[in-house]
Each structure stands twice: as structure tokens, then as C-alpha cells.
Amino acid sequence: MSSNRIVLEVKDLRVHFPIFGGIFQRKVATVKAVDGVSFNVYKGETLGVVGESGCGKTTVGRALINITRIMSPDAEVTGQILYHAADGSIVDLVKLSKSEMRPYRSKIQMIFQDPYSSLNPRMTVAQIIEEPLTLHTKMSKAEMKERVGWLLDKVGMRPEQAARYPHEFSGGQRQRIGIARALATNPDVIICDEPVSALDVSIQAQVINLMQDLQDEFGLSFIFIAHDLSVVEHISTRIAVMYLGHVVEYGPSEQVYFEPLHPYSRALLSAVPLADPDSGRAMRTFLAGDVPTPLAKPSGCPFRTRCPIARPDCASDFPPFIEKQPDQWVACPYTTPEVNAAVAP
């Protein structure tokens, strides 16, 4: 159950990657992977982040745990990522160095997309789960062994499986191990980077239900990154829709799912498979053209080159973020449910 206490506050987050070229390797261009993203995460809630591949979802997640500059030392990360601790203190994670960030890594964990490559094949399950405990706690060996068994039991596995290696498990079991590792340090926020996209549909449901049960039990906050709007709607409290590094719609999950305001949100929703194929074809919204490259974003509104309701001034004016309905924000001054219905095929 979510509360009104903010755990994570993101303000105008920008992640730019410079591109170097020529003999002297000078900066020739910049990839604006994330370009002015803002949102709040509350205690016990799930914020869904949805969009096409390349829209910046994973980059946002990596920036939140402050590993972007470790993976890409030339990356330029600006804005604010404010972590609100339980004692009332507030820390801007963007300003922290690698060593200064260490005390906060235990409070913000990540579940990775690929359950096969995210686990070290040379380590046993016990060693994988014990690693964050070794880094962030002062537990004894006996306490860590007990903790590992307890965590495996919580994610639906047997404690005796701790002595096995990752290759001995299925994809769903590996993702459960990843969840246990993320839970090990009692985090406040867990960033879930498409945690079920590599799993079978039946296993997806099991993992999602497991995550919801753990959230209810421990009061966890999730940032659930995915491209499937139906999965995001099922697990999320609120949804942020991203396009080319920008949030184009943001609001309660039911409102965004059943009454999308932005044309891009509507197109994403129409791509969700329905039980009735004829009904699905009738509701399908096709976007013109391809996704522009982040190296050369369109002027004005980044979505205007594919938008069915684009107007001449969209080429010059960046769209303001407007609260069109209570708690539902959209980056388009022209869209309404009536306008969307009028342009639907």
C-alpha cells in the first residue's frame, strides 16, 4: 500500500553521451538519451516507466543507482535525484562520487533484464546473495547463511538450493535469485529493468505476483521499466510514458491505460494484443515514419514527425507539461480524448 512519503524525487534529469571522432577524438555530437525527466516515487508504490526501445528507460534506471558514469565515464549527468531517507535527511545522488554513493547503494537496488547474464556463473547462489551483505553489512558468516536461506524461502525457492550454480536453474528461477539478491540489504527502492521480458508468459505472471507479494510485505517501492503497457498497468500505481528521452504522459495507471491523452500513449496501448483479433484491428493506431535518432531530434515537439494531430507550431515550440485531468499530465497542448477519438483509424 502506497503512502504520501516521497522516497525518491527526480528533477530535470538529463543524461547525455558525447560522441568523439576524427584524428584527435574531439567531441562531434551528443546523444541526449534522457532530456529533462522529472517524477516522484512514493513509499510502497510502483511507478511504471514505459516506452519503445531506445526511449531512455534503462538509462533513467542506471542513472538512479548512479552507475552511468561508472559504465560510461564521459557521460554527462545533470539534474537532481533526491533520496529521502527514513530519518528525514535528503541526499542528491547526482552529486555523489563512487565512494560517497556506497552507503546509499543498499537502499536502491536493481533487478536486471536478463536473468542469464546478470548472475555470475562461477558463483553459487549463496555467494551471489551474500555479496551485497558482505559489502553493506557486518553480518557474520552464520548470520549471512541464515539470511540467504530466509531470502530464498521468501522468493519461493528452497534454502538447500543455495549451494547450486546459476546454470542449474530455469530462467524464472534465476530471476527469483536476482530478486533475492536485490532484497538482501533491505532496500527502500528496487528498480526493475524489464524483469519479465525474457521469461515465458506463464513465468512472467509468477514473477510479477511474487514482486507484488514482497511489496505488500516489506513496503517496497518499485520503478518497473517495461515496453508492454498491459504488464505495466497490472503492477503499477502510476505510469510515466517516455519518448525520445522525454516523459510525454504521467498519471495514475488506470487513467493512462484506459484514457490515454497523448497520441503516443494511445499508439502504445493499441499495440497490446487483445483476445478478440477483430476488435484489436479496429482499435489499431499506426504511427507514420520511424523513431528519429537521438543524435538529431526533431525541433520543437520530439513526437511531431509521427503525430497524427501535429500542427505547424509544433515544429518550433517545445510542448509544456499540462495537467489535462486531475493528476494526469501530458506534454501536448492540443490533445484531448475527443481529439484522439477523431483521428483514430
List the helices and strands and how they pair.
Blueprint: E1 6-21, E2 26-42, E3 46-50, H1 57-64, H2 68-71, E4 76-84, E5 90-92, H3 98-105, E6 108-111, H4 125-136, H5 141-154, H6 171-183, E7 189-193, H7 201-218, E8 221-226, H8 229-235, E9 238-243, E10 246-252, H9 253-258, H10 263-270, H11 277-283, E11 322-325, E12 328-330, H12 337-343
Parallel strand pairs: 3-8, 3-9, 6-7, 7-8
Antiparallel strand pairs: 1-2, 1-4, 4-5, 9-10, 10-12, 11-12
How is this structure best described in words?
The chain has 345 residues and is an alpha/beta fold. The protein is 32% helix and 25% strand. The protein is built from twelve helices and twelve strands. The strands form two sheets. An eight-stranded mixed sheet has the order 6-7-8-3-9-10-12-11, sandwiched between helices. Strand 4 and strand 5 form a beta hairpin. It starts with 5 loop residues before the first strand and ends with a helix.
